[in-house]
Amino acid sequence: MYYTEVKVSIRFKISGLIVVLVFLLMGGVGYAIINLVRDSFLEEIKLRALILARNISFSARDPLIENDNLPLFNLVHGALRHEGSVYSYILDTAGRTAASPAVLMPSEVGEDSMEIHLANSFWQKELTGAIEIPEKKVDDNQYEAKIIEVPGWLKNVYASDTIGPNEQPKPAPEPSWTDIYELAVPVVIKGVEGSVTRKKMGEVHVGIDLTSLQQTSRRIQMVVGGIAIVGIVIGILGAFGLGALLIRPLKALVKGVAEIARGNFDYRVRKRTNDEIGDLTTAFNVMAKDLKDKVLIEDAFKRYVSHQVADEILEDPDGFAKSLKGERRQITAFFADIRSFTTISEQLTPEEVVSFLNYYLTEMTTIIFNNEGTIDKFMGDCIMAVFGAPVMHGDDVYKAVKSGVEIQKKIEALNKERIARGEQDIHVGIGINYGEAIVGNVGSTQRLEYTVIGDSVNTASRIQGLAQSGEIVVTHAVYQEVKDFFEFLPMDPVKVKGKAKPLAVWKIKVPIHTSETYPLRTPENKDKPKPEQEGPKPFGFPSPQPE
User: Fold this and answer.
1) Measured between alpha carbons, how far is residue 304 from residues 149, 220, 369, 396, 411 in Å?
2) 281/344 same-domain check
């Protein structure tokens, strides 16, 4: 089974996170405010009920002792004149009502109009659902309070008692309130003088309607909910604005990365903010500059060594750095020089000399690089190359000789074109030696040059001077390494500078051509003027191609 990865913009991630945070914050604050207001209202209701119940309790002591019912009726009836009270009753020591409970019920005027009704049918009765006061609280003259549902006895009052002046049977509708805060206070008298013992004479119960509290809570919930919605909307807008503010420089950085990937190392991203994204932009621009410098260095480095060698060096720069310290190594030194170039160049302008040398050296360098050689230096029309440094291969000697053969063949092809155009042909002598040399950086603290020095290099230079036009002369050490791959012709031992004994040298069998061996004119050009009649063209180079 394959799953497609869904890409979610960072703008939506940031916006979603901020919306969630705003939602949680507004929800938490709203919940805290609602609870705080609810607790404050409940505390106020409890205080109101407690004061009312304490006053009734204080006034009910003597009537309870004397069993005087009329004052008790007046007390429970008067308790309902206070706002929010929905019922009140007084219990005697046996737990029965000492007076008819007073209850708020709808009047004949309408359900919205309430009047105080004395539930006479519940006089001297035990009421179901009444809260109980623990004995310990009675001894401490404390109260008991709870939020309860509409008690069963109150529902029975609404269902069985009658309303109206004529006491006609007419059940009252169900009460509109659902939760009631009931508070019970014991009616106690002290014992004998000096004693802390208290005697319970009865209880006063007061029920307070929590509808106002619920309505207030709902209003607060609506207000807080509205504020939360506004806050969430503002949070969403702010989140998207912040996301856009953050995305804009990030998109610029993404575009910059794409430009760098395409090789446009001159591309720079404008720094718009002075924060972490601004620091990232600065770091990106520094990186782009460093990459450009690195590419320039790599490109320049590849002008000195072949691309294959350059890649190997760049893959292991630490190993290459160690080789720069200088070490003895078996290398193949290669020298190639144009014969009689000084005489020929005297017939050319300086611009023509430089143009031709650049063309010739480019062609020769390409061959050397293709065989993983390294250009050590250009000395006028002479090329010095090294095979086996800075990177060694198992076939460096073979590739050096192969490069010489390919160069001579390239010169042969060039000469055919030149002679056909009436230009003077050129010839190159090549010398190759294999032996030990010191490889590393040589120079001063201001300028260093990676090169090879040693007797083997000097010997290669000497035998290059022995090579005639079109010849490749190698030492016996080279011959021993590649004699199975090329056809050699023996030469007489030669005496070279710096050597006490004559040096054994060999010549590779390569066709040598001069202007006499090339056909100067084809049959179709037989009747045309000779090239020399068109003007002196002793030495030429390919004409520039039209753009």
Assistant:
1) 97, 82, 9, 17, 22
2) no
User: Strand locations in 269-422, DSSP E?
Assistant: 327-338, 374-379, 382-387
Where do we find the tokens 């035990």?
Answer: 126
Compute how many other C-beta atoms are within 10 angstroms of the C-beta atom of residue 159. Answer: 11
Confirm whether 324 is domain-assigned.
yes
Nearest CA to 427 out of 513, 301, 324 is that of: 513
Pair 286, 368 in one domain: no
Please compute, for residue 116, the number of CA atoms within 13 A of its CA located in the half-sphere on the CB side. Answer: 19
Q: Kindly indicate the confidence band of residue 321, based on its pLDDT and cuts at 50, 70 and 90.
A: low
Task: Write the CA distances from 330 to 196, 214, 497, integer angstroms.
Answer: 118, 99, 22
Assess whether 207 and 335 both reside in one domain: no
Bond before 390 cis per omega within 30 degrees = yes
* Domains identified in the chain, total number: 3
CB atoms within 10 A of CB 309: 22
Q: Which residues pair with 206 in a beta bridge?
A: 88, 183
Tell whether 121 and 73 lie within a shared domain.
yes
- The strand ranges marked E within 380-427 are 382-387
pLDDT in tens, 483-519: 999 999 999 998 887 777 888 999 998 765 544 454 4
Return the SS3 of 518: coil
Using only the alpha carbons of the chain, give its radius of gyration: 57
Burial status of residue 491 (CB atoms within 10 A of its CB: 0-12, 13-18, 19 or more): middle
Q: Which two tokens stand for residue 99?
A: 């007076």
Report DSSP state, residue 289: H
Strands 472-475 and 428-443: parallel
Q: What is the pLDDT of residues 224-260, one digit of tens each?
A: 778 878 877 887 787 777 777 777 787 888 888 888 8
Are both 112 and 61 inside the same structural domain? yes
**Residue 520 falls within a domain, yes or no?**
yes
Tell me, yes or no, whether 313 and 295 share the same domain.
Answer: no
| Domain enclosing residue 282, as ranges | 268-299
**Token pair for 67:** 């069993």
The reply to whether 4 falls in a domain is: no
The one-letter amino acid at 121: S
Can you read off the two tokens belonging to residue 179? 């939760």
Q: What is the CATH number of the domain that holds 446?
A: 3.30.70.1230
Classify each residue of 1-35 as buried b or exposed e, where b means 16 or more C-beta atoms within 10 Å of its C-beta. eeeeeeeeeebeebbeebbeebeeebeeebeeebe
Say if 471 falls within a structural domain.
yes
Do 151 and 129 contact (CB within 8 A), yes or no? yes
